[in-house]
Amino acid sequence: MFRLDPQSGIPIYRQLVEQVRRMVAGGQLKAGDELPSVRELAVAHAVNPMTISKAYSLLEVEGLLVRQRGKPMQIAAQSAPQNSEQERLQHLQPQLEQLILAARQLEIPDKVLLANLRELLGDK
Question: Class assignment of domain 1-81?
Fold first, then answer.
């Protein structure tokens, strides 16, 4: 369900928070959907359970998750409305800007970058 990369330079808890936000905004996670337990996710990704707990707590404070004693964390009811495509694209803006900056620093032409993106997307 989640892809956590300890080598990315982005703290694991931030990766998890951003992925949950994007999946809720994109409609992949809907109100009432259950998330894996802290222990389950920590074992699956070989990370400290406190890291997962921190991410879940931040999302709970944000109102995206709800905690019910003895049950898994769930997507909150008020997070149900799906955002427009433009609003969902805003979630990608920082990563796109970072990608463009890295490509320019590596002196990769826009045409080459776009061709590689198309290939990765399967749009040859």
Answer: mainly alpha
